[in-house]
Write a structure and sequence with these properties.
By secondary structure, the protein is mainly α. 56% of the residues lie in helices and 0% in strands. The model is unreliable at 118-122 (pLDDT under 50).
Protein backbone atom coordinates (compact mmCIF):
# COMPACT_ATOMS: atom_id res chain seq x y z
CA UNK A 1 0.00 0.00 0.00
CA UNK A 2 1.50 3.30 -1.15
CA UNK A 3 0.18 5.31 1.80
CA UNK A 4 2.26 3.19 4.17
CA UNK A 5 5.31 3.09 1.90
CA UNK A 6 6.00 6.80 2.30
CA UNK A 7 6.03 6.92 6.11
CA UNK A 8 7.96 3.63 6.24
CA UNK A 9 10.68 4.99 3.96
CA UNK A 10 10.64 8.26 5.87
CA UNK A 11 11.12 6.59 9.24
CA UNK A 12 13.99 4.56 7.76
CA UNK A 13 15.55 7.88 6.67
CA UNK A 14 15.48 6.79 3.03
CA UNK A 15 14.54 8.75 -0.07
CA UNK A 16 10.82 8.67 -0.62
CA UNK A 17 10.98 7.95 -4.34
CA UNK A 18 13.72 5.33 -4.61
CA UNK A 19 14.19 4.12 -1.03
CA UNK A 20 17.98 4.08 -1.43
CA UNK A 21 19.19 7.64 -0.97
CA UNK A 22 19.24 9.57 2.32
CA UNK A 23 16.28 11.82 3.20
CA UNK A 24 18.04 13.99 5.82
CA UNK A 25 21.48 15.56 5.77
CA UNK A 26 21.43 16.50 9.44
CA UNK A 27 19.20 16.38 12.49
CA UNK A 28 16.13 17.98 10.85
CA UNK A 29 17.51 19.29 7.55
CA UNK A 30 15.93 17.68 4.51
CA UNK A 31 18.37 16.81 1.74
CA UNK A 32 17.12 18.97 -1.17
CA UNK A 33 17.86 16.50 -3.97
CA UNK A 34 18.30 12.73 -3.62
CA UNK A 35 21.84 11.77 -4.65
CA UNK A 36 20.63 8.45 -6.07
CA UNK A 37 17.48 9.25 -8.08
CA UNK A 38 17.43 13.08 -8.19
CA UNK A 39 14.02 13.41 -6.48
CA UNK A 40 13.24 16.87 -5.10
CA UNK A 41 12.63 16.13 -1.42
CA UNK A 42 12.05 19.74 -0.39
CA UNK A 43 8.71 19.88 -2.17
CA UNK A 44 6.99 17.76 0.49
CA UNK A 45 5.75 19.78 3.48
CA UNK A 46 6.04 18.86 7.13
CA UNK A 47 5.89 22.31 8.74
CA UNK A 48 4.56 22.16 12.32
CA UNK A 49 2.67 18.89 12.04
CA UNK A 50 5.77 16.85 12.94
CA UNK A 51 6.05 18.77 16.21
CA UNK A 52 2.40 18.09 17.01
CA UNK A 53 2.85 14.39 16.30
CA UNK A 54 5.92 14.30 18.52
CA UNK A 55 4.17 16.03 21.41
CA UNK A 56 1.17 13.72 21.03
CA UNK A 57 3.37 10.59 21.13
CA UNK A 58 5.59 11.73 23.99
CA UNK A 59 2.70 12.80 26.18
CA UNK A 60 0.68 9.66 25.55
CA UNK A 61 3.64 7.41 26.25
CA UNK A 62 5.29 9.18 29.16
CA UNK A 63 2.33 10.59 31.09
CA UNK A 64 1.23 7.04 31.80
CA UNK A 65 4.69 6.24 33.14
CA UNK A 66 4.59 9.39 35.25
CA UNK A 67 1.22 8.40 36.75
CA UNK A 68 2.51 4.91 37.44
CA UNK A 69 5.65 6.27 39.15
CA UNK A 70 3.58 8.69 41.22
CA UNK A 71 1.30 5.90 42.46
CA UNK A 72 4.12 3.42 43.05
CA UNK A 73 6.75 5.52 44.81
CA UNK A 74 6.28 8.23 47.39
CA UNK A 75 8.25 11.14 45.95
CA UNK A 76 7.98 14.86 46.20
CA UNK A 77 6.61 16.88 43.30
CA UNK A 78 9.92 18.68 42.93
CA UNK A 79 11.84 15.40 42.61
CA UNK A 80 9.25 13.98 40.21
CA UNK A 81 9.49 17.06 38.03
CA UNK A 82 13.28 17.04 38.17
CA UNK A 83 13.30 13.45 36.94
CA UNK A 84 10.43 13.75 34.44
CA UNK A 85 11.51 16.93 32.62
CA UNK A 86 14.83 15.59 31.26
CA UNK A 87 13.09 12.35 30.24
CA UNK A 88 10.38 14.30 28.39
CA UNK A 89 13.03 16.50 26.75
CA UNK A 90 15.17 13.58 25.61
CA UNK A 91 12.15 11.64 24.34
CA UNK A 92 10.95 14.68 22.39
CA UNK A 93 14.36 15.28 20.83
CA UNK A 94 14.71 11.58 19.99
CA UNK A 95 11.27 11.24 18.37
CA UNK A 96 11.17 14.56 16.47
CA UNK A 97 13.30 13.51 13.46
CA UNK A 98 11.34 10.28 13.04
CA UNK A 99 8.02 12.14 13.25
CA UNK A 100 9.21 14.66 10.65
CA UNK A 101 10.37 11.86 8.36
CA UNK A 102 7.03 10.07 8.72
CA UNK A 103 5.08 13.26 8.00
CA UNK A 104 7.19 13.99 4.92
CA UNK A 105 6.69 10.38 3.82
CA UNK A 106 2.95 10.68 4.27
CA UNK A 107 2.95 13.93 2.27
CA UNK A 108 4.78 12.11 -0.52
CA UNK A 109 2.37 9.16 -0.39
CA UNK A 110 -0.78 11.27 -0.69
CA UNK A 111 0.75 13.66 -3.23
CA UNK A 112 0.78 16.79 -1.08
CA UNK A 113 3.36 19.29 -2.33
CA UNK A 114 4.39 22.80 -1.45
CA UNK A 115 3.39 25.62 -3.75
CA UNK A 116 6.17 26.49 -6.17
CA UNK A 117 8.49 28.92 -4.51
CA UNK A 118 8.14 32.33 -6.08
CA UNK A 119 11.06 34.67 -5.90
CA UNK A 120 8.86 37.34 -4.37
CA UNK A 121 5.21 38.31 -4.43
CA UNK A 122 6.27 41.81 -5.44
CA UNK A 123 7.70 40.60 -8.79
CA UNK A 124 4.22 40.62 -10.28
CA UNK A 125 3.48 44.17 -9.18
CA UNK A 126 4.60 47.27 -10.95
CA UNK A 127 6.10 50.28 -9.20
CA UNK A 128 2.79 52.20 -9.03
CA UNK A 129 1.12 49.30 -7.24
CA UNK A 130 4.00 49.16 -4.77
CA UNK A 131 3.77 52.89 -4.04
CA UNK A 132 0.09 52.47 -3.16
CA UNK A 133 0.98 49.90 -0.50
Amino acid sequence: MVVLTGPRRGICRACLACGKGRLFCGYLAVRPICTVCGNDNEQYPSDDFASYVTIFLVLHLLVQALFFADRTWAMSSLFGGAVAMPIFLLATLALLPFAKEAVIGFSWAVGAKRNPVASSWTDDLDESALSEL
